[in-house]
């Protein structure tokens, strides 16, 4: 009798997903639903790719940075001209980056969107360098990406501080990355939805898992208004949607720390960047921390509350509010309270769920299947696992890591999963799910 063939290892399966999604210059999140290059996806993908091909991981980031605009922004989508224009909406014809974005320095040689995504890139570049320092130095990898990353951070810090308090504002839910979170419901109510648009996403995903037509219409309206204003920032008038988000700013602070390390590797001083990261951390606590709730909340700059300067806090428990745990200089009492919130009834980490949900288990809008309104995502859980470990919660981090690896394999590297059962939802063979699986599997990971 022929012996049974050994099952492929989880590492081999994850690597094959990244191979299947590789275009030759970058990695798509999904061959079906997301057939172009996405900004923060590529950063997370590079973090995983470094364990199987540091060269490809470097190329992933270099391809993205080649589409950077003259004002420093890194667009959230870089379009592949080989993909049919109607394969994804909003398409290049909607964004019109090379014309509408000309004043902001959009590149003429490649089509992109005009909005941004969370700044994970300097952190990714530093981790990719550490995976193979010899290769990195021989290619001058850090020397070539450092100016682009520094310009990216300058853009955010100088052009997007709409609240004037030292934090970056997002002007579209897609910029924050957690597109359909209930945290955006109140700010979005001010936005009149666009009426005419085509939803390519429903051709690849179930309608009950995706944003509603009303919300999608509001997303399209915000994007088209920004495009029609030639992607101008800092005009003195707040956008219809202007929100200070905890995760976006925490990732910027973490990437400032990484950029400081890159500067030191290149022979420059990193002190000023570490100091900037600590100022961002302090502003996060000052502006977005609610000690009674034990949670960071978004601040809606247009949603003023009587007696509360600079807009009002949106008191919805989204996973974004847990992610400042990734910051090393977070005050101890804040870190302790965040751990308690993560493991309490709102998120149930270690007890009620297999992976942390994207939104409050007790919230009125919780839905374990609908996009960012409850399902668990691998990138946010990867960040949470790192934050737990950073703050001394090694046992809890270890249990979360084990659950993530089990769920990734069982769900065929799903885009997102039911937080309680681990059942896969959305696309399968998803890029960052496979990449972060590789990182969690690595014996010596630089986290």
TrEMBL record:
<comment type="similarity">
    <text>Belongs to the glycosyl hydrolase 63 family.</text>
</comment>
<dbReference type="InterPro" id="IPR012341">
    <property type="entry name" value="6hp_glycosidase-like_sf"/>
</dbReference>
<dbReference type="Pfam" id="PF22422">
    <property type="entry name" value="MGH1-like_GH"/>
</dbReference>
<dbReference type="InterPro" id="IPR004888">
    <property type="entry name" value="Glycoside_hydrolase_63"/>
</dbReference>
<keyword id="KW-0326">Glycosidase</keyword>
<keyword id="KW-0378">Hydrolase</keyword>
<dbReference type="InterPro" id="IPR054491">
    <property type="entry name" value="MGH1-like_GH"/>
</dbReference>
<feature type="domain" description="Mannosylglycerate hydrolase MGH1-like glycoside hydrolase">
    <location>
        <begin position="34"/>
        <end position="433"/>
    </location>
</feature>
<protein>
    <recommendedName>
        <fullName>Mannosylglycerate hydrolase MGH1-like glycoside hydrolase domain-containing protein</fullName>
    </recommendedName>
</protein>
<dbReference type="InterPro" id="IPR008928">
    <property type="entry name" value="6-hairpin_glycosidase_sf"/>
</dbReference>
